[in-house]
Write a structure and sequence with these properties.
homodimer, mainly alpha, Farnesyl Diphosphate Synthase, two-stranded antiparallel ribbon, 14 helices, globular
Chain lengths: 297, 297
């Protein structure tokens, strides 16, 4: 099973990489803008969100290829948010995945615009998704609405605003959870729900997928905090202990490393619990959730 | 006719204002973020782009109310682009329509995020547009694709990149036209084409509308340059002569005030020429183009 899973993830990741490359090749746009977009978009990464879209689509019988525009759209949204979050006026990060951030290489103006362009193209891809015959415009419109809500003021962007508001102060666990559920959880939820919507899944199943993703996102975030303390800087691509230096509240600062680990495992168990009604068919989503803990980067 | 036109524009503007207010009220998002979004979105303005959407829809028999989500979407795109263009790392403007710009009031981070949120919500509105029964998701998806292309790397954002690249150097007329056709013209074209698409207009008519808007946008931009020299600062909301101080190429610096005026009139005549096959029904689009020249702000 482990091997089957690794093969699945490797295959989908390769398809996503190829599609992201294709969607940003031959754009009739200023070359340096396209370069900045591609610098951040094609910088590797786990491609977790697009793979969640594809795995959820496949669970309900849609071919991965038929959900590819939507899968790439969510990765473009994720990438734009990293570019803008790294800006000097925000988190002021100079390193991302071990490479200089977009604004360090291309300047602030270009980083703002490259982010804007990726955000815009994400919804252009959603419009193209409507043209996939086995999906159609009605399902796609609903998926696009999910994406806009998850990525917008009431979701990811709102989370970044709240995160910035807590800078230099210690958030308690409820606040920390809220920030993460907006900053990270909302896009995870949108990913699996969009995959389900494109494939025609029913309401009950969509809600179940959403709960799965909420637990998944929480586990993901807790594990990030654990890695920040015990991780290998070469693998995480940022300095070990950078959260502590910024005096940010984390699950580790609130519960210690072992307490945080326990909470991550518990969140994964809850995620897996939501998948039970889907039986063996949900093996990819199950393995994805399990892979979040114990990862080293 | 003049009175009928002024009444039409006043009525549509009021409807657009009310819809923009409604779409950004009661958002489940950080209050200060919503405030920053609304500060820039509800700052008045001519609402030219949404009115172009509505007028084009009505020309082909769709009620204005049925195109309102799309009309507001394009205004949100326009507003986000102003917020981001005003940032210190871009044009570094502190005044817009006579008021302090978004980042001056709310800080840079919030201005970036408010812009991102408006851009995201624009496409959320396009997804809602799909739910309007007389329009439907297929036409809406096509309109959303037009919007994404016009606003993205190959359109408006690309234009801003080229504009920044020419800073401090004198662009020639061909380059100036290219920058303006991307920065301003692309959204004007998208506005009328989206209106037509939502209403089910045919390909030939859409192309004609697009050409109308290209001439319209050129006239609009030339007249902006004229106003910068001869205008009243209290009306334009920026200092008279600010272009010259920034050593930017303008139609006035290339052709003088009278030469620029002549070119604006010629562009309006060309815009009107494109409307001829539509006959009397196109009276609003005709009056809109005529109103662009001789305006004082």
């Amino acid at each position: 099973m482990k091997r089957e899973y690794l093969q699945y993830v490797a295959a989908r990741r390769e398809q996503v990489e190829a599609a992201l490359d294709r969607y940003t090749s031959g754009l009739d746009a200023p070359p340096r803008l396209v370069e900045a977009m591609r610098y951040s978009l094609l910088a590797g990464g786990k491609r977790l969100r697009p793979i969640l879209v594809l795995a959820a689509s496949e669970l309900f019988g849609l071919d991965a290829a038929d959900a590819m525009p939507c899968a790439c759209a969510i990765e473009m949204i994720h990438t734009y948010s990293l570019i803008h979050d790294d800006l000097p006026c925000m988190d002021d990060d100079e390193l991302r995945r071990g490479r200089p951030t977009c604004h360090v290489v291309y300047g602030e103006a270009m980083a703002v615009l490259a982010g804007d362009a990726l955000l815009t193209q994400a919804f252009g891809l959603m419009a193209e998704q409507a043209g996939v015959a086995r999906v159609g415009p009605a399902r796609t419109a609903r998926a696009a609405l999910e994406l806009a809500q998850a990525a917008g003021a009431a979701g990811m962007i709102g989370g970044q605003v709240e995160d910035l508001a807590w800078e230099g102060r210690q958030a308690d666990e409820a606040q920390l959870r809220r920030i993460h559920s907006l900053k990270t959880g909302a896009l995870f939820c949108a990913a699996v729900r969009m995959g389900g919507i494109l494939a025609g899944a029913g309401e009950g199943d969509l809600d179940r997928l959403g709960r799965y993703a909420a637990h998944f996102g929480l586990a993901f975030q807790i594990w990030d905090d654990v890695l920040d303390v015990v991780g290998d800087a070469a693998l995480t691509g940022k300095g070990v202990g950078s959260d502590a230096r910024q005096e940010k509240s984390t699950y580790v600062s609130l519960h210690g490393v072992d307490g945080a680990r326990e909470r991550a495992y518990a969140a994964v168990r809850q995620a897996l619990g939501e998948l039970e009604p889907f039986g063996r068919d949900a093996w990819v989503l199950r393995a994805l959730a399990e892979s979040v803990v114990d990862r080293v980067a």
